[in-house]
Amino acid sequence: MAGIDWRPTLVTRLRDRFLEQRAAEAHRHLEDDLRMLWREACTGVGLCHYVHVAAGTTIRTPRFGGLRHGDGLVFSTELLPGQEPDDLRAQATRLAHTLGAHGLRVEPLAGRWVRIVLLQSDPLTARVPLPELPLAHGAGRMVLGRGEDGTAITHRLTGPAHLAVQGQNGSGKSVFTYGLLAQLCAAPDVLITGSDITGLVLGRAFDGTAHRDLQATGTRDLLEHAAMLDRLVAEMDHRLDAMPARQDAVTASEWTPLVLVVLEEFPGLLRAAQARDKKLAERITSAVLRLVSEGRKAAFRVLMLAQRFEANAVGGGYARDQFALRLSFRVPADSLAMLHGDDARPLGPAHANAAPGIAYLSGPGHDCTRLRAPYLGGYGEYCDRLARHARRASGETWADWIEVA
Ligand SMILES: Nc1ncnc2c1ncn2[C@@H]1O[C@H](COP(=O)(O)OP(=O)(O)O)[C@@H](O)[C@H]1O
Ligand SMILES: [Mg+2]
């Protein structure tokens, strides 16, 4: 009788069982090791309770739950009474190093249970890619970069904050801006305007798009920059005058877009204007001052870039105070403290040598953190993305409607 050849099936089954058992055993060993290390790490950094009993002192540490199956090292732990996830976060680096990891992330689960995700490498050393698809509207979450715990740090342009970005030459300010503009260029309710004496961030790259009209570039015609800023101020005034009753802020729409005013190397523009005509510099300064102080309600957002955010280089201390969201790429230690306050001082010496693309961020909703900005992959890719996604210019442009003051 020609029966089925059952031997290969049996051998496969036995081998699978064996491999399964081996994997389960390895998982158990790893879990045991981690449980012990976790206890030692928590004790070492003082995240423990000392309980005095008749037989002596015992040490209680956050209970190790279980190691999760799958990729990466992820386990749960139960905080001790009185502990908060932030207590673990405050010691994250020390705990992680004891566990042989680079860093760790603490994610609340339920009750006192939290999940610990061990990070095997520094999230700030790896390049951060940018999602191919741009934002569908201005209220979308724009990626600012990847944080030290490996998560994305985002910001909504509709949030009431102007952005200040400082950093030495070659520290990554422009690349950061390419990333932001590539994300915003397709949104029907966002208009990208501004001044760029380098002509790389704005200008030619935007030719043929709906954004191009209110962009001034180069240093040959500085009057163009002043005139463009004046037109923006006129539109802002118009919006503020036309504000409907019982409203104190303009809601951005396709018809009244959120106007992003990019001021690339702004101190350079002011210097160039000053060298030519003091009056011109004053005109530019006062337009920018009005945009930063009154623009938020009129759906205007300013993104100012400078090598150093010194008060007199950016239109005065009052102008500087209007920027709620602040980013510093590589800067000398005193510049870091100047823009972010004393909290940032301890980081100063290390940040003075930060690699291009690594920035220190502070602002509402963002604790002072470090991040790595997205990298598009070169200037050509920025131009390609704008060509692919940016809103095209239609016959009648929005700028035509703006009455010139
Ligand atoms: N986020 C980043 N990731 C990787 N490399 C970066 C990043 N940002 C900048 N760089 C590198 O640094 C160089 C200078 O950046 P750039 O933005 O032109 O500096 P800045 O405008 O501050 O003078 C870029 O050409 C690029 O090679
Ligand atoms: Mg630059």
From TrEMBL:
Superkingdom assignment: Bacteria
Swiss-Prot/TrEMBL keywords: ATP-binding, Nucleotide-binding
Residues noted as binding ATP in the record, renumbered to the chain: 167-174
FtsK domain sequence ranges: 150-338
GO molecular function terms noted in the UniProt entry: ATP binding; DNA binding
KW Acyltransferase (keyword) present: no
PROSITE patterns: FTSK
Protein name: S-DNA-T family DNA segregation ATPase FtsK/SpoIIIE
Organism annotation: Actinomycetospora corticicola
